[in-house]
Write a structure and sequence with these properties.
Number of strands: 12
CATH superfamily of the largest domain: PAS domain
Strand content: 15-25%
Number of domains: 3
Number of helices: 13
Largest sheet: 5 strands, antiparallel
Distance between the termini: 62 Å
CATH architecture of the largest domain: 2-Layer Sandwich
CATH topology of the largest domain: Beta-Lactamase
Oligomer: single chain
């Protein structure tokens, strides 16, 4: 149903907004309703005190005190002023005893006085005696009725001011206040006031809030659509680009227009496609290089075999020379296949390492001895600098010996005659041993330095191929070192020489 991320984002934003607005409106309306009801109750209680002072003899001792603003902020200045004005207008009303002994004349007078107050207060006034009997009713409907069982009258008969709100029909607030003289309840003032004004105000507030919420919701929907589009557009571009990559098109790049998580995702995607494209190019180059490296010896072998088959086999000199060349080219192919197998095992982390605690100085001396004759042919001086405090290393000695042989072979191969090749072994950092093979040869051009160690990469392709190299020696050395948990790096200056360094974990 909600298949579009843009739609889901918009709906999620709107859901949060609607919930927040609904909860805020509910809390605000609840607060305002309590506020106005408290104000109405405070005003009604003040009116009841004025009525008691005006109509009940002895209750004049119950001094009228306006409700404290600090105690209830709902009772505001306007209401206090209104009640004070009514209090002044009732100061000269005479008080008559509140009991059944009232004459008809006195009763009529009190009824007229209550009607006057009721008109001024817009409140129904009932005066009850100490037994809860209605003596005076400004609406003249319940005179003589017994209201002692009324809940708020019962509270008033116990000396407590009490109120309640009725919501059936027209909302009305009722309040019963005891009139006390010398600690005795001498009567009860029972007031009833319509809450129509409060209801009207609350209804108006609800209407305004609904209208405001509708406008806010519309604006929020528009903003949510823009925000969701800002999020969904990059996702859509990433989806399209990822689909293209899945179909083999690796040259995909998406624009990076932010620094947030989506921007980081876009940058990561671009980096991934660049690496995939580079890996595919490397794979293509690898296949081409393997084909090229194997084609040369195979072509040579095929040509010599055909020549021998055509009759050259009868010539002993030609036969022996051709067979020797075939053997050399076959060995070259075997080395190439073995090297590729080693690299494949390294890539799949399938190299079998037979580790042991080994003294590197012995491996170095063995490698030096193997190349002593080759170095002598170029009049090179092979030197070693081994720190006596160098710890033993935890390695596969056969693999590391092959690393030393590959590095020494390159150092001698690219050194000038009468130069020096030095192997240095010293303690390294973080419980490791540092080995360096340094020559004074032709060096490596700066533009080629970052490619050294890549498979089949050679700075001097013609010379390397002529000397039998396939460009895999450093790649194998690096794979062996990294399989041991070490690192290999190269430093070189063209025309001054090259230093190949690697680290191995100490035992």
């Amino acid at each position: 149903m909600f298949s579009s991320i843009r739609l889901r984002l918009s709906l999620s934003h709107l859901t949060v907004i609607v919930l927040a607005m609904g909860l805020s409106a509910f809390l605000l309306l609840s607060f305002l309703e309590d506020y106005f009801l408290d104000a109405a109750e405070d005003s009604l209680e003040a009116q009841a005190r004025i009525t008691a002072q005006a109509l009940i003899p002895g209750a004049i001792a119950v001094e009228f005190q306006p409700v404290d603003e600090d105690w209830n902020p709902a009772y505001n200045t306007v209401q206090q002023q209104q009640v004070s004005n009514i209090a002044i207008s009732t100061e000269n009303l005479p008080s008559l005893p509140i009991d059944t002994s009232l004459s008809e004349t006195d009763l009529a007078y009190l009824t007229d006085a209550s009607l006057q107050l009721s008109t001024q207060l817009e409140t129904r006034i009932r005066i009850l005696d100490a037994q809860g009997i209605v003596l005076i009713d400004s609406q003249q409907e319940e005179q003589g009725s017994d209201l002692a069982t009324d809940s708020i009258v019962s509270e008033a008969l116990l000396g407590k001011t009490s109120s309640r709100t009725e919501t059936s029909g027209e909302d009305t607030m009722h309040l019963a206040l005891p009139a006390i003289d010398d600690g005795q309840i001498i009567g009860i003032v029972y007031l009833s006031q319509s809450l129509g004004d409060v209801t009207s105000v609350l209804h108006d507030l609800r209407s305004r809030m609904v209208l405001s919420a509708g406008i806010a919701l519309l604006v929020s929907a528009i903003v949510a659509l823009f925000l969701s589009r800002a999020i969904s557009n990059p996702v859509r571009r990433l989806t399209t680009a990822a689909s293209a990559v899945a179909h083999g098109n690796f040259d995909q790049q998406v624009p990076v227009r932010s620094k947030d998580e989506l921007g980081q995702l876009s940058r990561t995607f671009n980096d991934m496609t660049s690496r995939l494209q580079a890996a595919r190019q490397m794979q293509t180059d690898f296949v081409a290089d393997v084909s090229h490296e194997s084609r040369t010896p195979l072509t040579s072998i095929k040509g010599m075999v055909e020549t021998l088959r055509d009759g050259a086999v009868d010539d002993p000199d030609v036969r022996d020379r051709f067979l020797s060349t075939i053997e050399t080219e076959t060995d070259r192919l075997i080395r190439l296949v073995n090297d590729l197998l080693l690299l494949s095992q390294a890539d799949s982390e399938a190299l079998n390492l037979h580790r042991d605690s080994v003294d590197l100085s012995e491996l170095v001396q063995t490698a030096i001895y193997q190349f002593s004759h080759k170095a002598a042919e170029k009049e090179l001086d092979l030197q070693t600098e081994i720190n006596p405090n160098t710890p033993t290393v935890w390695i596969d000695s056969d693999r590391i010996e092959q690393v030393l042989i590959n590095l020494l072979d390159n150092a001698i191969k690219y050194s000038r005659p009468n130069g020096t090749v030095t192997i240095t072994v010293t303690p390294g950092k973080n419980q490791s041993v540092l080995v360096q093979v340094r020559d004074e040869g032709i060096g490596i051009p700066t533009e080629d330095l970052s490619h050294i160690g890549q498979r089949f990469y050679r700075t001097d392709k013609a010379r390397s191929r002529a000397e039998g190299g396939a460009g895999l020696g450093l790649a194998i050395a690096k794979a062996f070192i990294e399989a041991h948990g070490g690192q290999l790096w190269i430093e070189s200056k063209e025309g001054q020489g090259t230093t190949v360094s690697f680290t191995l974990p100490s035992a």
